[in-house]
Amino acid sequence: STHLYSYEVYHSLEEIQSWMHHMNRSHSQLLYLFSIGKSFEERPLFVLQLGKRSKHLKKAVWIDCGIHAREWIGPAFCQWFVKEALQTYHSDPSMRRLLKQLYFYIMPVFNVDGYHYSWTTDRFWRKTRSNSTNFNCHGVDANRNWKVKWSGEGASLHPCADTYCGPVPESEPEVKAVARFLHKHKKQIKAYISFHAYSQMLLYPYSYKDAIIPNFKCVESAAFKAVNALYSVYGIKYKHGPASSILYVTSGSSMDWAYKHGIPYAFAFELRDTGYYGFLLPESLIKPTCTETTLAVKNITNHILKKCP
Amino acid sequence: LLYNNRYDGDQVIRLLPKTEQQVDALKSFHELVKVDFWQPSSILSVKPGVLVDIHVPRNWSEKIFQSLLQAGIDFKILVPDLQGLIEMQSGSRARIRR
């Protein structure tokens, strides 16, 4: 079934959801689909649990894609990673080991309403699609709606702004659902990885202050090895480091929230490219982008399992 | 054409404000014309030395370019034909499917 669906084209939300259901039925040994809630427009928020079923509590890695609607390469990567894991389970010892040792919780489309809107109406939509009561504007920046340095630098309290942080933290049902899940499973989840585009960066906390995280050594080492592994595939260079220095200081993001709430290894990828195509990365570049990124994610996960406390 | 050809004539430009005065000029201009920031995510994050990519609607391109020139801000056109790039993002079979 992984051969019938094309992983080298962008798919509508409906196609992605059909794919998730199909994969759930056809790979029940390694895949389990569940919903963690509903979006503002009442769409289910699906998560795939990827890994060998175990009666015992296994460690886990959380991966989400598509917090920002227009960054389509994110959801394309999440689908690719699931496909790759299932297709190589028997042939790749390192993948098999990962799927036996831990679960990946993969949310292929975080911002389902926004993704659908960018597919049908406004290709460059970024935010969610919630309503503002006082203004004729929609949506909240889902990466500025977390309860960590909320409404700080770079966030806006105006409902019409692209970086509107919401009336309150976790006002968005999508953010609240993920926060609730991560909190409930925080003893199990060892790493949080969020996928965005573009810029070709691998970032870690903090975004909201210019300070070094307590476990800097291990996080930096994991990131360094990951970008080197990524580079080894097609020679694509990614910058890496704390978001506040590689980019600029901003209000807290999902990565910062995860870190603050006890997930020790939190990362955010900004995938290809650096601006030639920007959000419009052509389908012909999905395969190389996802191939190199899969290697980086495996690298991070292996490093965390073997080298880090 | 995808999205009813709404992006016809639109472009994406890259600029690099080098001084606080240039950043202020951009912020003042943004008060009048709310352009879509590709990077950074908003005008609030624009600082000297930070690369800025903005989506320039067709109707505003002349005004924006004039303002940038007046402020002495260097820029280049990253995407000269945004609608064309949107069409190119998907292969023909995927476009037909959409």
Q: What is this structure's SSE topology?
A:
The complex is a heterodimer of chains A (309) and B (98).
Chain A: H1 13-26, E1 31-38, E2 44-50, E3 59-65, H2 73-88, H3 93-101, E4 102-107, H4 112-120, H5 173-184, E5 189-197, E6 201-204, H6 216-234, E7 239-242, H7 243-246, H8 254-260, E8 265-271, H9 286-307
Parallel strand pairs in A: 3-4, 3-5, 5-8, 6-7
Antiparallel strand pairs in A: 1-2, 2-4, 6-8
Chain B: E1 11-15, H1 20-32, E2 36-39, E3 52-56, H2 61-71, E4 75-79, H3 82-89, H4 92-97
Helix pairs in contact in B: 1-2
Tell me briefly what this model is.
Chain A is of the alpha/beta class and 309 residues long. Chain A is 36% helix and 17% strand.
Summarize the structure in words.
Chain A has 309 residues and is an alpha/beta fold. The N and C termini of chain A lie far apart (38 Å). In chain A, α2 packs across α9 and α6 runs antiparallel to α9. In chain A, β6, α6 and β7 form a beta-alpha-beta unit. Chain B has 98 residues and is an alpha+beta fold. In chain B, strands 2-3-1-4 form a 4-stranded antiparallel sheet, covered by helices on one side. Helix content of chain B is 39%, strand content 19%. The mean pLDDT of chain B is 91. In chain B, α1 packs antiparallel against α2. At the A-B interface, loops of A face β2 and α3 of B.
Low-confidence stretches of chain B: none
Number of strands of chain B: 4
Order of helices and strands of chain A: HEEEHHEHHEEHEHHEH
Could you tell me the radius of gyration of chain A in angstroms?
A: 18 Å
**Mean residue pLDDT of chain A:** 96
Distance between the first and last residues' Cα of chain A: 38 Å
Largest Cβ-defined interface:
A-B, 32 and 31 residues
Sheet having the most strands of chain B: 4 strands, antiparallel
Task: Estimate the helix proportion of chain B, in percent.
Answer: 25-40%
Strand order of the largest sheet of chain A: 1-2-4-3-5-8-6-7
Strand adjacency order, main sheet of chain B = 2-3-1-4
Measured by DSSP, the beta-strand proportion of chain B falls in: 15-25%
Coarse structural class of chain B: alpha+beta
Strand content of chain A: 15-25%
**Assembly level:** heterodimer
Structural class of chain A: alpha/beta
Helix and strand run of chain B: EHEEHEHH
Kindly state the percentage of residues in helix of chain A: 25-40%
Rounded mean pLDDT score of chain B: 91
